[in-house]
Amino acid sequence: MRIRFFPILAHVLAIIAVAPLLWILISALKPAEDVFNFGWPSTWTLDNLQYVLLKIPMPRFMLNSAIVSVTVTVVALFFHSMAAYALARLRFPGRGIIFSGIMSTLLVSLPVILVPLFLVAKQLGLLDSYAGLIVPSIFHAFGIFLLRQYYLNIPRELEEAADLDGCGYWRRYWSVILPLSRPVLASLSVLFFLANWNAFLWPLTITRNPDLRVIQLGVSGMQGQYASAWNLILAAAVIAAIPTVVVFVAGQRRLVDAMKTTGLK
Asked: Which of 11-15, 122-126, 130-134, 261-265 is predicted with the least confidence, judged by mean pLDDT?
């Protein structure tokens, strides 16, 4: 009997990847004294989740993260789609140079530009505000790149037919290109939401007001105030992960389809 090596290896790697997540979930439902005991808890309890939701401003942290994530996602998709459409379908001098300049920003990570970005935000009066959390997070070259690749595969005959009907650039973009972009926009919305929900470094830099803390800062802050209460920290981590799991499960099919249509692997 022939044993298939790669399927077994894939299952082993999957178990290794999922095991820490299951441990966090189970530990969040244990009493404090059983957190570091291996195996099933002696009793299951929801007290940890209840304490985190009622005694700690976790709903406020989640609301702040939701406002930032949803706003950045909607605004970024709108502007990225317009930029990608111009770079993919319009002919103008310097188009290749502009696209290369945008793509070159992928080589620069956030820690490298953190100080100048903070100084610019300070000059613009964006410190300790939702605008400071949202505006610098809108631009991302990967979104423009993915949308441009998708638009290159749309048949030009559709735009030519719109031209015959008297449509200008804006009408072609709004009535023809944008409706055809729903699959890739859906996949990008998943990526943008997850990235901004899990953002930590920039919110830590730009905000000092406790009322503007996002969920990742809130969970991180618990490690100081509740350093010995790991059951509460794990419960907060579980609550913080719920929206990301829901969004990923809802959009994973669109995400895979978009990767296939844009030629990314």
From this structure: 261-265
Tell me how far apart the alpha carbons of residues 259 and 256 are, in angstroms, rounded to a whole number.
5
Q: Where are the beta strands (DSSP E) in the chain?
A: none
d(CA 176, CA 136) in angstroms, rounded, equals 30
DSSP string covering 22-55: HHHHHHHTS-GGGTTSSSS-SS---HHHHHHHHH
**Given phi > 0 = left and psi -120 to 50 = alpha, else beta, which region is 158?**
alpha
Question: pTM of the entire structure?
Answer: 0.83
Domains detected in the chain: 45-262 (1.10.3720.10)
List Cα–Cα distances, 200 to 35, 157, 168, 181, 195, in angstroms: 26, 45, 42, 30, 10
Q: How many CB atoms lie within 10 A of CB 107?
A: 8
Distance CA 201, CA 217 (A): 9
220 burial class (0-12, 13-18, 19+ CB within 10 angstroms)?
A: middle
Condensed to tens digits (0 to 9), the pLDDT of residues 5-15 reads 788 888 889 88
